[in-house]
């Protein structure tokens, strides 16, 4: 279900949902949820099933209950677009959350900070904690290990008999790790791993390190 | 008023002119024909008469037979009859619409129509309105419509989306649907059905006529056009032009068969054999099956025989319009020795100087082959010659089968679409965008069409809910916005942005995103699909429109290029275009196989293949009439199992999926599936236990549909169909002109949508339509059942071979594949990883 890794003597747990748990900080990292995307489509005349809105909240609740973190950090693109009524579902979800919630702003996050602050969500352009740099866009800064999102990383893997699969993944090198998109109604961008990369794919309820 | 010349002053003041009777009217036409030194064909006269008797109908006439005059003339005569003072008083307003599936044909029709209208001084005007028509002219047309409007199905829908459209059409006297056979089996045909259902109400005097080439289901074509059991249908005729064309088919057989390749699709090996044919004929058309093949042939002929420069041209749908028109004119003017073309030259345009046709590669259907053959010797009575050039050895069997097909004129049906909810959603939104509609008026109209004759009240209600609520029940915090229901019950789009987006997206052809190709210094060359360009880097050289071009940059959906002197081996290819054998063609092919297997008299083509048959017999067998052949063997790639039903690509796709599904129930396994017109392959990284397949009786027609449905969930077919449906029904927006959303995004959006529907709304009618369409149009369920029943009667012959056989070779090398798996995702990943270690 999960996979544990150690970076700079800190312990992290990769969850099959695409979330990452930082044990020492009791902190859950989640990237690219893109809430409000379904409602955004519907508002513009595209009849995506409305019940799909609940999918992301169920998934969020599940992973939060699993780790019960004291802090939740969203690594950007929490909301897909401008304010729509999916915000009301988010408010309802926040009501049941006891953890501290922080948003590292992403390019999609255009909803007024005041709205977030009213819910008790703190906003930052980036976070530096110990030797770690948390951002939305992947970044290499010397002396830091960077956790980010934005890319929606995925990989293609090939097998015998002309088989191939495309799966979302955690994409890591020695200086950074890009988280997969957590949101249900999001696509993925296929990356081509090099020698220096470590790739952890999400396969149903497992996280598998590609070797 | 006194325009009749000097004598008018001396005459008594003219009273209203007398209404002419039918014979007098026909006399005008016949006189005009004599003045051109022509003689009307019986089918033309029949059509004139029927039209003037206010009948509707379908005219079955081939291209180049004078079909335009068969219908345009009586439209003009009818106007003269109703307006005896036509010479002095022009009655304004739209009188006739001519629908053509290809914009390229409209100029030709315009010229012919103008010629007659002007010669007899009818005072009628002709105009064109297509996607190419500049905005200025379109606006002018809206103010003042021409008398005859030549347009496309999409542009007609756009007219229905403008305010007050009912006034535009109120005096419409005739609508002609040209090349109806091309539209019939497509969603554009459904669009035409819906437009006609509306026009029948708002244009009460309208007569409906279709023109169709020969297809298997002409009677049905008439029914679809006019509406089953409708008044129009009851008062209609089917007129057939009996123009017998003699067609001679001749195969180009390589001198050294031994070195002729077993697979391939280009046919370059026979380039030299083509040259004498071109030299000995006035003008030759070389038909290729794909645009890239067209580019390559053009380039290679010029490389090897530079003396053809200036006399050889190329014609395909992605080259700019000016060049295409120039080529077409040059053919007529006998300036060209040969033209390499694709199906873009299949239709319409009359080319008298063409003497010879060469078909490169299998045409896949008899009707298409006949139509192409018909492009030469365009004068009635002249013999048409068509050469068949095989691109690989097995295609010679096709050639042999085609010979027989031409003799028996066995042609295919075009299967009309049923219950296309996506097109209906688009159409209703179109009506809501213009003047709005009341469901009680529109429902009976929609029900009167062939496509929606079985539409139920519940389904109708569902569609109305879908366009107004975006779902069937109201849900919390929902902001869905599209069509609103006004207080008086009118369905209307009031949001301007939604209306504009809808107008931009009207249509049913969903292609890959295309980019325009331009020179750095300006000058438009044509269009190219996005995915091809995405594989190139600036500085790379590729060949397009017969020129070597260096990619400079891609910006704003434009590919900027420079001329290059460098040689290039990169040719753009355009997706799609994979066709299947028709049922008729497959049957002919099977018969040829039996001849090949037996000892009876063989055609030259089969004789030429004897060494391949010998090899096949050594490794395996050539199946006889009562045998069903299965071959298994192992290669570096994995374990192959090849089945040979000889039923055509689409049926094989279904069978492969079905069988793979049934085998996958025995134990977790993953297959990659390939198919061609001869057979199909199941490829796996584990051996397939063939004995288990027989013991469990997996090759059976029992539970066929049920199993197939389940197997579909495991493959990608329905997912791909859903993409078109999502675009047509407006769930995915394809973007603004020149600012198009890249196909990659559209693709992934519709892919994402598919998953969302599967998980959250599997009973959605549009989602289910994807599966139904896969069944009816992709997999041809009827043919599949018949094929399975036939196979059940046969003896299965299983050959465990040492290596791939000549029959297997073209299939196993095919790269376009489906997947089917019964393994858990995590297990697959782990197994793939284990394989890497062994590599």
From TrEMBL, chain A:
Stored SUPFAM superfamilies: Metallo-dependent phosphatases
Pfam families: Metallophos
Molecular-function GO term, any one: hydrolase activity
Family matches, as Gene3D superfamilies: 3.60.21.10
Residue ranges of every copy of the Calcineurin-like phosphoesterase domain listed in the record: 28-121
Protein's UniProt name: Putative phosphoesterase
Automatic annotation (TrEMBL), chain B:
SUPFAM superfamilies: P-loop containing nucleoside triphosphate hydrolases (SSF52540)
Positions of the Helicase ATP-binding domain: 48-217
Record InterPro entries: ATP-dep_Helicase, DEAD/DEAH_box_helicase_dom, DEXH_lig_assoc, Helicase_ATP-bd, Helicase_C-like, Lhr-like, Lhr-like_DEAD/DEAH_assoc, Lhr_WH_dom
Keywords of the record: ATP-binding, DNA damage, DNA repair, DNA-binding, Helicase, Hydrolase, Isomerase, Nucleotide-binding
A single GO molecular function term of this UniProt record: DNA binding
Keyword set includes Ribonucleoprotein: no
Key word Ligase present: no
Top-rank lineage group of the source organism: Bacteria
Pfam family, one: DEAD
Domain spans labelled Helicase C-terminal: 270-429
GO biological process, one term: DNA repair
SMART domains documented for this protein: DEXDc, HELICc
PANTHER family: ATP-DEPENDENT HELICASE LHR-RELATED-RELATED, LARGE ATP-DEPENDENT HELICASE-RELATED PROTEIN
Family, as annotated: Belongs to the Lhr helicase family. Lhr-Core subfamily.
Protein name: ATP-dependent helicase Lhr and Lhr-like helicase
Organism expressing this protein natively: Salinimicrobium catena
Organism lineage: Bacteria, Pseudomonadati, Bacteroidota, Flavobacteriia, Flavobacteriales
